[in-house]
Amino acid sequence: MASEMISLSIADLLISLLPVALTLMILYRWTSDAATGVYSVLRMLIQLLVIGYFLDYLFNASRAWIVLAVLSGMLLAAGWIALRTVDRNGRLLKNAVLSLLAGSGSVLALTTTVVLQLEPWYRPDYLIPLAGMVFANSMNALSLAADRYQTERQRGVPAPTARGVALHTAMIPVINALFAVGLVSLPGMMTGQILSGVSPLIAVRYQVMIMCMVFGASGMTTALYLQLCVRGDPSPVQQDPDPTARPE
Questions:
Q1: Which of 14, 41, 76, 217 sits between 20 and 30 A of 91, alpha carbons compared?
Q2: Cβ atoms 160, 230 nearer than 8 A
Q3: What pLDDT digit, counting tens, does each position of 33-64 carry?
């Protein structure tokens, strides 16, 4: 049975900060350093406040060029952050952005234009949240793949083998999420819809769509990035030795 979403007042939010204050006190008493915790909480509050006002403006404006500008910024930021743990250079950044655009962008376009059939196609209240989920998950998978591929190549592992190892590593969190959904966790979008009064059966349909988007976008983005890395690898691409061959 659908119900109205419970409204949160400023007083309610202040009450929710009581456990935060208690945790900060314990951090100060036990470690004499609660500065990081205080900074993280303040930063979270400021970031969410800013993004709240920005999204309110974006949803009300509903202009194609603004939505495309936001998506472009998200894409570039995801590519840059994904390469945080590797020796970042122009070639790798280009590979990351192109992979995100082709892999995650195509999945996002398929979902919004064919599955949801948004009118208009740039409807920001759907497009921006969905893009955020897809880009964020693909970014994490891409980051794991880039780091593992570089590590394997530095160990002298042939490029095709390193590519396979990196893809396997990158997909572990995504596959774990598929195993855990509904058993260990209720994903954020599904939880939000249920709290807002949407039928759990409808929320489940949306969550299935989201999980398919995340799996497909992460896999396609990572595979494209790794393929570009193999093709642009300055070292000769070696073939795995035949384990049945006898040494001469």
A1: 217
A2: yes
A3: 788 889 999 999 999 999 999 988 888 887 89
